[in-house]
Amino acid sequence: MNPRSLFYIIPLLLSVNGCFASQPFQALIQAEALYYQDKQEDALQAYPKVIEQCNNDAGTMKRWCDKAYRQYAYLLTQDKQYTQALSVYETIVTHPRMTSSSVSMALYKQSILYLNILDLPHKGYRQLWHIVMNYPQTSAAILSLSSLTKLTEKTNPSDFYNKLGLVLTLLAHTNIADNILMIMAEISNKTFHQSQTALAHYSQIISFYPQSTFLDDALWYSAGITYQQNLFKRTAHYYHQLLALRRLPVWLQKYPSSQWADSAQQNLGLLYRDKLNQPEHAIKAFTALIQNYPHSVLQDNALWEIANTWGALGDSKQACLTLTELKKQWPRSKFTVIYHNDLHNKLQCPQ
């Protein structure tokens, strides 16, 4: 049996047994079943009937009927009935019982049609900004901001950056503020090559939006900028802040495993050894990488750096033991195959 079929078979069985009494819901399940059976023409006929029942049942709009409208508009778009799809989205926008999330997403879908299909870029552009300004707490606002960035960051980045700054003053206390700051930082750094301005934007995320899903990104890029400025103690501070995120209680962690964590741990070790002249701290940092990130692709790097650091400290015994461990655990690592023998001979390790 196709696993997708479970999507509609189970609800149908439940509805037959009386678990769901709502007529609009049962009609929606039947329409969904047609869609997942690839019977698109039949589904296109079924969804208007669902919508009709929804409009006669005031109590179910928030639960099932907004999905019926959205899916119907989607099928119309797939069938290249763009005018009809726009009309359905407009019905969602103007319907008095739709949620702000449904309305904003319908506006976003309209915008994409204007931009990508109907060749009405100015209308789509204005509507995207309308979503950002009027529905900043919704996922559609984040999608709209991403679309605006793709549209304008290369063609007119200065105007876009300035507009983002104005919008930020109005939306500083909304869910989208950290997204705006992140985009402004990226434009400052990558387009304008103004790393200090970018650092200021990252600092705003770190200071004012500690629950942001961009917090680890802001810390990582701040570390990179301060490293380029030779502000190595500040760089270490940012790495420590990033690594501290994993020590939060799980219920406080939005992203318990940052994509940057193991790299930050390695970079901290290199920073202590090569820039801050603290090799003992470096060994602790590399060891923490091995212990805290057992699935990291940097495990062999960490052992190699530990061996080198012990060698730099003049402790050939510990360096040789670490090299032996490296060869045992990672026999195919580039550090074993290419570099191992040179350091082994330099340290005069026993054969």
SSE topology:
Elements: H1 6-16, H2 23-36, H3 40-55, H4 61-78, H5 82-94, H6 100-116, H7 121-134, H8 139-152, H9 157-171, H10 177-191, H11 195-208, H12 215-228, H13 232-244, H14 261-274, H15 279-292, H16 299-312, H17 316-329, H18 334-347
Helix pairs in contact: 1-2, 2-3, 3-4, 4-5, 5-6, 6-7, 6-8, 7-8, 9-10, 10-11, 11-12, 12-13, 13-14, 14-15, 14-16, 15-16, 16-17, 17-18
Characterization of this structure:
With about 350 residues, this protein is mainly alpha-helical. The chain is about 75% helix and about 0% strand. It is built from 18 helices and no strands. It starts with 5 loop residues before the first helix and ends with a helix.
